[in-house]
Amino acid sequence: MADTKKSATLTIDGKNYELPVLSPTAGPDVIDIRKLYAQADVFTYDPGFTSTASCDSTITFIDGDKGELLHRGYPIDQLAEKSHFLEVAYLLLYGELPSADQLEDFESRVTMHTMLHEQMVNFFRGFRRDAHPMAVMVGVVGAMSAFYHDSTDISDPWQREVASIRLIAKMPTIAAWAYKYHIGQPFVYPKNDLDYASNFLRMCFSVPAEEYVVNPILSRAMDRIFTLHADHEQNASTSTVRLASSSGANPFACIAAGVACLWGPAHGGANQACLEMLREIGSVDRIPEFIERAKDKNDPFRLMGFGHRVYKNFDPRAKVMKQSADEVLDLLGVENNPTLQVAKELERIALEDPYFKEKKLYPNVDFYSGIILDAMGFPTSMFTPIFALARTVGWISQWKEMIADPQMKIGRPRQLYVGETARDYVDVEDR
Ligand code: CMC
Hints:
By secondary structure, the chain is mainly α. The chain has a domain at 7-53: Rubrerythrin, domain 2 (Single Sheet). The chain contains 18 helices and 6 strands. It has helices at 36-40, 76-82, 85-94, 100-111, 120-125, 133-147, 157-183, 196-205, 216-228, 236-246, 251-262, 270-281, 287-295, 316-331, 338-352, 354-358, 366-376, 383-404; strands at residues 3-12, 15-23, 30-31, 60-63, 68-71, 74-75. The chain has a 3-stranded antiparallel beta sheet with strand order 1-2-3. Strands 4-5-6 form a 3-stranded antiparallel beta sheet. Residues 232, 235, 266-268, 270, 294, 302-309, 359, 361, 364-366 line the site of carboxymethyl coenzyme *A (CMC). This is Citrate synthase. The active site is at residues 308, 366. Pfam families: Citrate_synt. One of its GO terms (biological process) is tricarboxylic acid cycle. GO terms for molecular function: citrate synthase activity.
């Protein structure tokens, strides 16, 4: 728990209330208002949680002004360059980088759980053929609670561990099958001699009629996209998972809630929206028109892939993603990709524009990820499922941390009620 040497004084109607101030290991101090309502009979008001810490956590730290992202203290750029997704998953889940033996054991546990219960095939087939893969994922992940009863008791640490491994292991299979169903191809079963990213690529792109050889550069790029999306502290979907699980709901239901929240265009859906926007812009000469629209208060249009609630500087993930985009497009021989040209020029113009400078709007992780995924052959509808697959480990790490906390209680925000006060019912003939 954070240090509490300081305090803050709140004065209401001339009466003072001393509030403890918690000092974290990094980041701004936090005023502890947990006893405020009991003492002063007031609530605090913070829609969108712009100034409210909803929990304490040891997993991920972001310094939005510096553009810094740390997982368990390790900078994301070092992890993206030197580590790989399953090692980062271990770090997020258990708090330290694994030894070689621990990593081997963890990878083998994840690998042993990649298959889905065969009856789940029927579940996929029940969806309309044109269902968005995110719609399928929300349903199928939630349905896991109907298939894996032996890992839904959240009071049992062993069951929590099994559920965690199952979710991390099965998410690529679920996402790949949602895609295969969407395009009318047969489901491809996981192949456990492949690494996590290669296995996912094979399940998405191989067909029974042909051998599929995974390109190691694409597999590395895929793994890096997973790593960059693995966790991002208390964002909307993670907070959704925490709130859902605070009621004691089972892990599969909670992660399904996270998938649902991630889908929105202000969050995980931004990568799809960003590529669609870049395509709509189409050519460099049309950029000024879209910049003007983004600045126009009367136009709801926003530059997708720009801006962030926490980062008021470059999103450190965007820097790595941009470098990856160059490598992948170079490998695929599409370095003159018109969408990439539009993206680079849009970024340059926006970063020089006073509106974006003043509001500290910088490219976020989604600005370049769509270009890479598109070049790899994924349709835009698969961008957010890939984000969900990767973020699952973050959701689970935060969920495990919360459940293991003896102070855990149900999340129950209060409100500033501005509706009618009590009034008498009026019979229909008198209205
Ligand atoms: N284009 C144009 N103007 C913008 C943009 C943008 N992308 N983002 C924010 N602004 C303006 C906004 O109009 C507002 O102006 P004003 O102060 O004059 O009213 C100001 O900047 C602050 O915006 P806000 O909506 O109050 O900021 P927020 O912290 O609530 O929203 C955001 C953050 C990410 C939802 C927002 O920047 C946005 O909608 N960006 C586009 C969507 C996007 O790329 N989302 C992915 C986020 S990163 C991946 C993830 O975490 O899921």
